[in-house]
Write a structure and sequence with these properties.
Layout lengths: L1 E4 L5 H11 L8 E6 L11 E5 L8 H5 L2 E6 L7 H10 L3 E5 L13 H16 L3 E6 L5 H13 L1 E5 L4 E2 L4 H13 L7 E4 L5 E2 H12 L4 E5 L1 H6 L7 H13 L10 H6 L6 H7 L6
Parallel strand pairs: 1-2, 1-4, 2-3, 4-5, 5-6, 6-9, 7-11
Antiparallel strand pairs: 8-10
Bound molecules: NADP nicotinamide-adenine-dinucleotide phosphate.
The site of NADP nicotinamide-adenine-dinucleotide phosphate (NAP) has 23 residues, from α1.
């Protein structure tokens, strides 16, 4: 069988291709990773590459050839046409990456929640069997949001630093996806994936500092300051929604589930482990 990993250049997608080709799961499958521009996509030996735009799926049959299971990113736009092609070519199971924003009371009707609900609706309407993954706060958010400031200033500005999150290691999300793509035992439901513990954002920074061997100061920002410092790739309505949800998480420990352990057979990895292997990004 062939497994298609869309977004194979992405953080989760890239790790997933590696795990599948490293033989983490039972062998006997081929792995294909796709990107919108496959000419610059570098995958581990043994994986095939394919060009695929999920929102403009001309020629998607090529990427879907012999595919039985696939990992799908919740791309903004209409996934319906691509999923209709996937249904026609014989895909038997879809593992969709989603976000708790799709059901969280503070986010489900906000831009981030709507994007993820739209992706879920498209998969549901396609008639393809599917499993939805709801990972908690991705450990890689620390790099996305703080690495530049820590590198250049040694400190980090955060609105609502006393909000609680549950950082999940990217490898755990990828490993769960790999299991679901190759083994039908945990399929067909929503899987709420979290790291092993709830932490305040300022505690996450403390762990980062410990790993880096220096203290990293947290400067508490007002919402207006956080909006002023918005990165260009982050649309303002998205950031506003995120900040409101973060405010709601102040003083409220984040959910901890045992889904990673149930599916992979080992406890969820600590944030410190992610920080250790990404130290260079902060130095
Ligand atoms: N941040 C959080 O705390 C959090 C929590 C829960 C869930 N999530 C979900 O996780 C996602 C982030 O995962 P990540 O870090 O692995 O993402 P990432 O590294 O940013 O990768 C995103 C991938 O999406 C692909 N993509 C975008 N538009 C596409 C299109 N039209 N057609 C095909 N592929 C397309 C990109 O492929 P190309 O190579 O073609 O550009 C890229 O590989 C978020 O967007 C959210 O949905 C995040």
């Amino acid at each position: 069988m062939t497994i298609l990993v869309t977004g194979a250049r992405g953080d989760i997608g890239g790790r997933l291709v590696s795990l599948l080709t490293e033989g983490l799961t039972e062998g006997g499958h081929r792995v294909r990773g796709s990107a919108r521009d496959a000419t610059t996509l570098r995958l581990p030996e043994g994986a095939e590459t394919a060009e695929l735009d999920l929102i403009d799926p001309h020629g998607a049959e090529h990427a879907l050839r012999d595919v039985e299971t696939m990992f799908l990113y919740p791309t903004r736009g209409d996934l319906g046409p691509f999923l209709r092609i996937a249904h026609g070519t014989g895909v038997r199971h879809v593992v969709l990456l989603s976000s708790p924003a799709a059901y969280d009371a503070g986010e489900y009707d906000r831009p981030i929640g709507l994007v993820h609900r739209e992706a879920e609706r498209a998969v549901e309407e396609s008639g393809l069997p599917y499993t939805v993954l709801y990972p908690s706060w991705l450990a890689s958010n620390a790099r996305r949001d703080w690495a530049g400031q820590i590198r250049s200033l040694g400190r980090v500005g955060i609105a609502h630093p006393d909000a609680w999150v549950n950082p999940i290691h990217i490898d755990d999300v990828a490993e769960v996806a790999a299991r679901l793509l190759t083994d039908d035992r945990h399929r067909g439901r929503m899987q709420v994936l979290t790291g092993p513990r709830s932490m305040r954002l300022r505690d996450v920074v403390t762990v980062l500092g410990d790993v880096l061997g220096r203290s990293v100061t947290v400067d508490e920002l007002t919402v207006e300051q956080a909006l002023e410092q918005r990165e260009p790739w982050m649309p303002e309505p998205f950031l506003r929604g995120l900040l409101e949800v973060t405010a709601m998480a102040v003083g409220v420990p984040a959910l901890v589930t045992n889904a990673v352990e149930r599916i992979t057979g080992h406890p969820a990895r600590e944030f410190a482990e992610w920080a250790q292997s990404h130290r260079a990004d902060f130095q």
